[in-house]
Every structure is written in structure tokens, then in C-alpha cells.
Design brief:
This protein has helices at 4-7, 40-50, 83-94, 143-163, 177-182, 197-200, 202-215, 237-250, 277-282, 287-296, 310-319, 330-333, 337-341, 359-364, 367-380, 391-415; strands spanning 10-11, 17-18, 22-24, 56-63, 75-76, 99-105, 120-121, 139-140, 167-172, 221-226, 254-258, 301-304, 324-327. The chain is of the alpha/beta class and 416 residues long. The strands form 3 sheets. Strands 3-4-6-9-10-11-12-13 form an 8-stranded parallel β-barrel, surrounded by 7 helices. Strands 1-2 form a two-stranded antiparallel ribbon.
Length: 416
């Protein structure tokens, strides 16, 4: 098999060179302390991944505000307090020749009930009825709060650069705050931040501008963006293309394409069993959209979701619709998979839907996060992942630890 394409270097427009075309996409680790500080387990996990031969590693959610967490155990970067540990985290990858970029995020409304004192969103739009027990209706953010969040993105990026991370990625997908501002389903504002698509994308462009002011022109700034959020009245492919054009004009260095939200988890549950034969054959879920993006802008593209084989990855690169192949969940069950893929061999493990047998739980798709977080914790402790772990058992254990983590996070916040 010709594996030359996957092994080729990639030079970004700003001159940054990635040693190959295989990237670890972001996954939530929840390996921080309950007061949201990085830990030795994070260093161990990323050192293991870096040893596998990857060209680029994107971290899981790094929150820009300790008051706005997505899960217990998120890392939050608000100041330089944890700079020594952040440097160790970055060095775990860069010391082995791998680029590591921090994914910066704000959850908006997409945070479990009780974790934060309150949740902010573009508008006070509740979750669908069957999820309202788990997620509170958010409060509409004021213009002053919006500006504060924008500046926090910039500050967190500056600290990441100082710590030695080679770049940052804005999380603008999967229903988090940036994604919420872009979607007319979540964003029903009638001021400068809502209404028309031009207004709705004002937030993401302001976040990008704040980061760029802090890190300078030559530092890689990427974004993860939905092709669509799979929600009626939500973010469409046409709107995504227009947003990508605006980001390209602003100077974004790399765009990762994904899709879905907690309420419509297309990136996980629905797409685990794609219905179209063409999607099965080509493996990547968002490849057709990537081709449209490629025709519209000249920005390096990363596609994540659905890749299963070395042949499929090389074929996608050969077709020219993307520049980087993103792999995530496979690396939670086989952290050594990149070494095989770069040699043209497939991993012996295969990603499959995680089911608990509880219809309401399976419909929400939470196990596509929780089950994999458990495997990451095993790797971080120096153990082997358990690809055969029961979905139901993992759910029960995760529900308990999540509840305990929420309690401890709130207690620590109150005591401080």
C-alpha cells in the first residue's frame, strides 16, 4: 500500500510544519483536579500518545472560565497559576517532536445541571424535553458578559503559548458556546450578536480576533466547526460555508470539520451507522462537505469522524479534499494505532457504538463521551484500555463519579 500521503509533512500558511498528516482530534479527558488544574495523569496520557508517531495532537476541552465548566475535571486556564504544570503537559508532546495545540472552549448551555452556579448562552433556550432534567435552561448573556468571554479566550491562548503549546484551536462545534452563537436555534437575540448570519458569526470572529491580538500573526490558530448541527432551524451547511469563508478571510490557519450537538449527536450515535453506501466506502462522515469547503477557500482542512483504515485515510488524502486526517476514539482503545496506520497497517481495534440498553441514555449519546473518558483514565494510569468494557457498567460508574465530581466542584468553588 502507498502510505506516502499519510506520512507527508504539512506546511501551514504561517510556516508551521507538521511532521505527518495524522492528527489526534480532541476528546474530553476530565483528568484535572476538581478545582480544574492539570495533573500528572494528563502528562502521562499525552506522553503515551506522542510516542505513537502522530503529527499533531489536539487536547481535550480547556475551559477559559472556571465558572463555566462542561464537566467535572475540566482543565481551566484563567491565569498563569498553573504555568509550570502546563509546560510539563506541552513538553510531553513537543519533547517527542509532536505538535500539540490546546483546544479552548466555553460550554454555554451545554453543562450538566448543578455543576456551574449558572449557565450562559446567546439566548435562554431550554433543552429538549427529555434532556431538561439534566440540563438547566441557560440565562441570556449580557453584552458585557459576551465581551468578557471574548477576552478570556484571548488570555487563555496567550498563556497556552507561554506554556509551550504550539497552537490553539477554538471549539466552535458540537453545540458549545461558539456553536450556539452561530445557530439560529440557540441564538434568538435581536442585537448585534444575533439575527442575521453576519451578526451570529460576529462572536466567533471576535473570539478569533482576540486570540490573534494576544498570540501574534505567526502562531497557529485553528477552529473546529460544525458542517451542520443536525437540528431543525439550526446551523446549516450553507451557513457553515459562509462562516468558513469569513474565517478564511480573517486568517484562520486550519479548519477541522465535524458536526452535531448533545441534543442531536450526529458526530457520534447517528453517524456510527451511516446509511449511504458512499459514506461507508469513503469512511469519513464529512468528506463531501470538505470537498465543498475546498472549492470555496484555500485553507488547510482536517476531517474527523468515521475513518477506519489506513487505506481509507490515504484515499481521502489522495482525493485532495483534506490535508489532515483526524482520529479520536480509536486512540482511546488503541493508543498505539498511529504507529500501525503510518506503516499502512490497520489497528486490531474498531470503534463501535456504545450501548447501555437504556433507551433514553442511548438516545442522548452520552456514552460516546463517558465510556471513552474511562478508557483515557486507564491509559493515564499506565494501564491498558478495555475495549470490551460493558456500556451499562460504564454508565453506572460514570454517573456516580460524575455526580460526585459535580458535588466536589461546587464545594471547592464555594469554599474558595
Amino acid at each position: 500500500m502507498n502510505t506516502d500521503l499519510l506520512n507527508q509533512t504539512l506546511t501551514l500558511p504561517n510556516g508551521t510544519v507538521l511532521r505527518n498528516r495524522l492528527a489526534k482530534a480532541a476528546m474530553s479527558e476530565t483528568l484535572a483536579t476538581y478545582d480544574n488544574r492539570p495533573t500528572p495523569e494528563l502528562v502521562q496520557l499525552y506522553r503515551r500518545w506522542a510516542s505513537s508517531g502522530l503529527g499533531l495532537i489536539l487536547t481535550g476541552n480547556v475551559m477559559i472560565d472556571r465558572r463555566a465548566l462542561g464537566e467535572p475535571g475540566n482543565v481551566a486556564i484563567e491565569d498563569e497559576t498553573d504555568l509550570p504544570f502546563l509546560k510539563q503537559w506541552a513538553q510531553a508532546a513537543t519533547g517527542q517532536g509532536v505538535a500539540i495545540w490546546a483546544q479552548l472552549n466555553h460550554p454555554g448551555k451545554q453543562s450538566a445541571k448543578g455543576l456551574n452556579a449558572f449557565n450562559l448562552a446567546p439566548s435562554a433556550v431550554p433543552f429538549r424535553e427529555d434532556m431538561a432534567k439534566l440540563f438547566e435552561t441557560p440565562r441570556e448573556a449580557t453584552p458585557a458578559e459576551i465581551q468578557d468571554i471574548i477576552e478570556r479566550f484571548g488570555l487563555s491562548a496567550a498563556i497556552c503559548k507561554k506554556a509551550g503549546f504550539g497552537g490553539v484551536q477554538i471549539h466552535g462545534a458540537h453545540g458549545y458556546l461558539v456553536s450556539q452563537f452561530l445557530s439560529s436555534h440557540h441564538n434568538r437575540r435581536n442585537d448585534e450578536w444575533g439575527g442575521s448570519l453576519e451578526n451570529r458569526r460576529r462572536f466567533v470572529l471576535a473570539v478569533y480576533a482576540a486570540i490573534r491580538r494576544q498570540v501574534g500573526p505567526d502562531y497557529p490558530v485553528a477552529i473546529k466547526l460544525n458542517s451542520t448541527d443536525f437540528q431543525r432551524g439550526g446551523f446549516t451547511e450553507e451557513e457553515s460555508l459562509e462562516t468558513i469563508r469569513a474565517l478564511a478571510d480573517a486568517g484562520i490557519d486550519l479548519i477541522e470539520i465535524s458536526g452535531g450537538t448533545y441534543e442531536a449527536p450526529g458526530m457520534g450515535v447517528n453517524l456510527q451507522a451511516p446509511k449511504q453506501a458512499s459514506t461507508v466506502a469513503r469512511e469519513a462522515y464529512f468528506l463531501e462537505f470538505a470537498e465543498k469547503v475546498r472549492a470555496a477557500v484555500n485553507v488547510p482542512l482536517m476531517v474527523t469522524g468515521g475513518f477506519r483504515t489506513a487505506a481509507g485515510m490515504n484515499a481521502a488524502l489522495r482525493a485532495g479534499a483534506l490535508d489532515l486526517v483526524g482520529v479520536a476514539r480509536l486512540l482511546a482503545i488503541d493508543p498505539d494505532a498511529p504507529a500501525a496506520l503510518l506503516q499502512g497497517r490497520d489497528s486490531p481495534q474498531q470503534v463501535h457504538p456504545i450501548k447501555t440498553g437504556i433507551q433514553a441514555v442511548d438516545r442522548m449519546g452520552v456514552m460516546e463521551v463517558w465510556w471513552y473518558e474511562r478508557q483515557l483514565k486507564r491509559i493515564a494510569r499506565g494501564q491498558s484500555p478495555r475495549p470490551d468494557e460493558s456500556g451499562l457498567a460504564a454508565f453506572l460508574k460514570s454517573a456516580f463519579t460524575g455526580s460526585w465530581g459535580t458535588f466536589r466542584t461546587r464545594r471547592l468553588r464555594v469554599s474558595s
